[in-house]
Amino acid sequence: MSAYYLTKTGESKADLDSASVLNFQGKQLSNQEKYKIGVAKSMLLDAKIDKEKGKREVSLSKTKEAIAYAEKNNLTEQKGDGYDEFSNYYDNSNVDEKIRLKEKALAFYKQSNSKKRQADVLKDLGELYGLTENTNKSLLNLKESLETYKSINYKQLQSVYNLLSEAEIQKSDYEKALKYGLLAEKTALAMNDNSLQLSSIYSNVGMVHYYLRQNNEAEEYWQKAIEIAKKFNDNGYVRTIAANISTMLIRQRKFEEAIKFIKEYKAKYPIADQEFEMRENYILFSTYTIIKQFANAKIYYEKLKNHYGENAEKNNNSLSLLRSFSFYHYQTKQYADFYRTATLLDSFAKKAGNTLIQSENHLVWFKVDSTQGKYLDAIKHYQLYKNLSDTIFKGEKSKQISNLQVAFESEKKDKNIDFLTQQSKLQEVKIANDTFIKYVFIGSIVVLALFVALLYNRSRLKQKTNKKLEIKRQQIDEQNEQLKKLLTEKEWLLKEIHHRVKNNLQIVISLLNTQSAYLDNEDALMAIQNSQHRMHAMSLIHQKLYQSNNLASIDMSWYIYELVNYMKECFGTEKKINFNLETEKVSLDVAQAVPLGLIINEAVNNTIKYAFPNGNKGNVLVSLKNIGENKYELIISDNGIGLSTNFNIEETDSLGMNLMRGLSDQLDGSFDLRNENGLTIQITFIKNMEFEASAENPTTL
């Protein structure tokens, strides 16, 4: 219970206070029962509560105490919990210490065979190794986490798939990255996970499409991601995805638009995150370098260099930063700085297994060596670039590198022969290309002619099909119109029937009223009056049915209100008896509404007549409520004189009482009478659902 209030959504002081009180009680009980695991859990939970309250130092001290207690009592799983929590006191600037503590926690979880906690920590380690760009270790931990989750049939795997996708992006294995990204999306949607995590998943899938140069797909996913981030008011996520979109604009050579886009989002969605500010500075630096605005580029280069160091040694994502530094030095012809940065970048990319960055680095290196006249080195770097790029996209090995090597060696031996040979080859290629283009052109005309013929044939078939469909549509429309007409007539007839039944009942009431004018017998007059009330109870139902659009059921809360008001007016009890109506909105069909209305009529009638003699005042409760699945309870109670002590319901000759019992049987319900502090009539019955089923499924009518 304490953990529930601690992890509850929101930051309420009342929730934290509840967590503290409950945890204290749990710790007391654990001490009383000498339950050491409970004590260890309470100690660690106490530390977490203080951390949530902002008492970081106190919380850290209590975490260490919890670890010491678990070690003293050899509580293996609790030691794992302690070291796992301890790791959370280190931020990503001290990743190595965080990893060390997580590894320690993992060892204890494996000893205690705590599968779920093992999987959780393995996932955390995978993410942390990803931050250090140790992609291989990241993937090992994440795959082990995935298998552990699956071994306990744990379904919420979207976060693991998402981290696997990120790791494969770092390795430039975009086929696997896309596979894991789509699995993360599929799992999140299947688990109805519409949290901020879905924004991260969409962002990563968009990034894979971006690297595969599938711009439309990347933009589509990033738009979905940024909408979710805006919905959760997470400015950090919004700015992250906006930065990704700006890189798309840069790729499309919309450089000024990209710069404007970043600056607009920076102003509209402020965040206090220096690291993220540096990421945006990195994009602006790269953009200004590409468009050769070196004065602006230098401003951001100095900011990045001062923050991360000249060799980007303080940056967890040093690959991208070193790549931009290298390109900047190349563009500004600072070749000494370029060679230093390019060598470091190649080492880091090789360690991270990022083949794409390696290949791009060697391509720029080839250009610098060519500019410096280092032709042998240039060829070597071009060979590395081609081998790596072919590996990425799984294409056939290019012959350009070997041709370039031969050309270079031939140039030293006999430049004239080499020149003539090249000219001859170019001429042959040109002739071959011209011949190829001619055949392609002829073939294209033949294919086009066949395609036009096929289109014409398809067009005629489509016209015939459309004509048949149009005839069928007209027939269906005619049938629908006939059905609508029949339905309207049916509804009109039903309303007319209810109207006429109501009018006939009113005529009977009027006839009884006229008959009573010729009677002097008080019992006869009372019998006629009772009959009139019963007629009115039934008449109200039919009146409501023909006045409403729903011909199948009647709202009993409205009905009870109208019926009780009618009874009050008939007997003039407004000042004498106080009626309290507690009715839920219940819809019943006519078959149940009529007997229930007659029961209420009889009960209220008897209460008004007999419960409060000699002008006594009193209270009457009429309640109709749901007490279970389709089960309802009607209560009519008063605080009057009640029934006589020798009253026997089985032997009574009261028409009203017998009528209520008979109507209860008609409802298939139970009838109960309690004579305590007045009289209480309780009727329990099951609501008839047949008319509702018919309304939901018209085909059964």
From TrEMBL:
<keyword id="KW-0597">Phosphoprotein</keyword>
<dbReference type="InterPro" id="IPR011495">
    <property type="entry name" value="Sig_transdc_His_kin_sub2_dim/P"/>
</dbReference>
<protein>
    <recommendedName>
        <fullName>histidine kinase</fullName>
        <ecNumber>2.7.13.3</ecNumber>
    </recommendedName>
</protein>
<feature type="repeat" description="TPR">
    <location>
        <begin position="199"/>
        <end position="232"/>
    </location>
</feature>
<feature type="domain" description="Histidine kinase/HSP90-like ATPase">
    <location>
        <begin position="591"/>
        <end position="689"/>
    </location>
</feature>
<keyword id="KW-0472">Membrane</keyword>
<dbReference type="Pfam" id="PF02518">
    <property type="entry name" value="HATPase_c"/>
</dbReference>
<dbReference type="InterPro" id="IPR011990">
    <property type="entry name" value="TPR-like_helical_dom_sf"/>
</dbReference>
<dbReference type="Pfam" id="PF07568">
    <property type="entry name" value="HisKA_2"/>
</dbReference>
<dbReference type="InterPro" id="IPR003594">
    <property type="entry name" value="HATPase_dom"/>
</dbReference>
<keyword id="KW-0175">Coiled coil</keyword>
<keyword id="KW-0547">Nucleotide-binding</keyword>
<keyword id="KW-1133">Transmembrane helix</keyword>
<keyword id="KW-0418">Kinase</keyword>
<dbReference type="InterPro" id="IPR019734">
    <property type="entry name" value="TPR_rpt"/>
</dbReference>
<dbReference type="Pfam" id="PF13424">
    <property type="entry name" value="TPR_12"/>
</dbReference>
<keyword id="KW-0067">ATP-binding</keyword>
<dbReference type="InterPro" id="IPR036890">
    <property type="entry name" value="HATPase_C_sf"/>
</dbReference>
<keyword id="KW-0802">TPR repeat</keyword>
<feature type="transmembrane region" description="Helical">
    <location>
        <begin position="436"/>
        <end position="456"/>
    </location>
</feature>
<keyword id="KW-0812">Transmembrane</keyword>
<keyword id="KW-0808">Transferase</keyword>
<dbReference type="GO" id="GO:0016301">
    <property type="term" value="F:kinase activity"/>
</dbReference>
<feature type="coiled-coil region">
    <location>
        <begin position="462"/>
        <end position="496"/>
    </location>
</feature>
